[in-house]
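Listing S7. Sequence submitted for prediction.
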Amino acid sequence: MHTQRLDWWQHEHVFGQHQVKAGERRTLLVVLLTAVMMAVEIAAGLAFGSMALLADGLHMASHATALGISVFAYVYARRLAGHPRYSFGTGKVNALAGFASAVLLVIFAAAMAWESAARLIDPIPIALNQALVVATAGLLVNGASAWILAAPRRHDHGHHGRHHDHNLRAAYLHVLADALTSLLAIFALLAAKFFAATWLDPVMGVVGAALVTRWSLGLLRETSRVLLDVQLPGSATERLRSSIEAQGGDRVADLHLWSIGPGIQAAAIVVVSDEARSPDHYRGLIPPDLHVVHATVEVQRCRHLAGGGEGATSPLPG
């Protein structure tokens, strides 16, 4: 066999990861919006001596950093999508960034709960009017940011949809957590202003921390499944098995189906057949909506499969 003809069986492992995702542009816009609000609050806090403004500005800075991780992940995955060191492209960078952001969210929630508990034990005076202005401004900015990240786009469909984009979801949860914090703060501050219920401020902090932790744990579970190559749900693997075995003379002896990026899967299939066909035949039986972009198929010939005999097997190229 001539070496130059091997390219018939070779293919790239980019799988569309080199393309600019809509989530990248939206996340970058939110980072810029968050950074501007952060700079305004820190400057105002220093100029007017307001600890509330300064603290919220520093809080915004922490989320701007986390959102920056999301933007970096998009750029890194896109620019190195075709690098040979990545066996299945850079799709898992998306899940890795989502996992890192979820860890940061848990840390932020723990800090929020700790500070709230401390204020329950040892209350401090609250500059209610000033704090209400800060919370309202934060709610508006984070509400706009959440809308930008959640807004559907015409090209967000199929296996590139935002449903599978853990990086985008992590960015969305960060701004949603900020928006929730601001909303709960406004409720608590109004109660303190008009009903002297100052204890509600730290209580709402604990409630917010619990909700953020719950969201974060869900994202950690989803992204860790991708990072650890966990099998897709049984319904997906059974559909793939049924498609391969539909002709009756073919049996799937071994099957692995796992995610390698946002909405794209890889599969490893061992088929035992009494009338074995080429690996390409079995690849053609994979349901298109499973979005399997890389399939390794091994075919074993067994002439007595239908009768349950112990016929000798011999491998075909896979």
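Caption to Listing S7: primary sequence and predicted structure tokens for the chain studied. Helices lie at 22-48, 51-79, 91-121, 128-150, 166-195, 200-227, 234-244, 279-283. The CA atoms of residues 151 and 163 lie 12 Å apart.
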